[in-house]
Amino acid sequence: MVSPDTAARSNFQQSIDVLNGQPPANTPRIEVNLLPGVQARYSGGGTTLAGQLVVDVLGKPFPQIMREWVLDPLAMKNSTFEQTASCDSGPALPPRLICRMPNRSKASGMCIPN
Predict the structure, then answer these.
(1) Does the pTM of the predicted model rise above 0.70?
(2) Residue 111 φ/ψ, nearest 5 degrees
(3) Would you say 40 and 58 are in contact if contact means Cβ atoms under 8 Å apart?
(4) Distances (CA, A) of 53 to 12, 41, 49, 84
(5) Of the candidates 70, 48, 52, which has an alpha carbon nearest to the alpha carbon of residue 61?
(6) C-alpha span between 113 and 86 (Å, rounded)
(7) What does the pLDDT look like over 13-56, one tens digit per residue?
């Protein structure tokens, strides 16, 4: 069994690898290539970095932070930032949301693989 500290370090290292453009990343490394304020544009990497900053500062998992700071204050009881797992490992959602989760399955109930 992996300890919570080891899992946290593993998740942190994976985030760092993605930001550096290393596997499991599917994009180049994140870098600042414009002066701030010169041009408005979306940055998925910047969003990832901002999310990791919040996790580092508050010391809580991102889904918990978003529940406490955004979803609960807005009474968004049917929303979550939890990540779903693959068909093989089953859902990682809280039990109260599993029944509302869209799934990739046939009418027979068999899961459709990735």
Answers:
(1) no
(2) -70, 140
(3) no
(4) 11, 20, 6, 23
(5) 52
(6) 8
(7) 777 888 888 888 888 888 888 888 899 888 888 888 888 899 99
Triad 50, 51, 52: Cα angle to 5°: 90
For the chain, give the secondary structure using H, E and C: CCCHHHHHHHHHHHHHHHHCCCCCCCCCCCCCCCCCCCCCCCCHHHHHHHHHHHHHHHCCCHHHHHHHHHHCCCCCCCCCCCCCCCCCCCCCCCHHHHCCCCCCECCCCCECCC
Half-sphere exposure of 12 (CA within 13 A, CB side): 14
Token digits of residue 96:
């109260």
Q: In this structure, what token pair is assigned to residue 27?
A: 């994009």
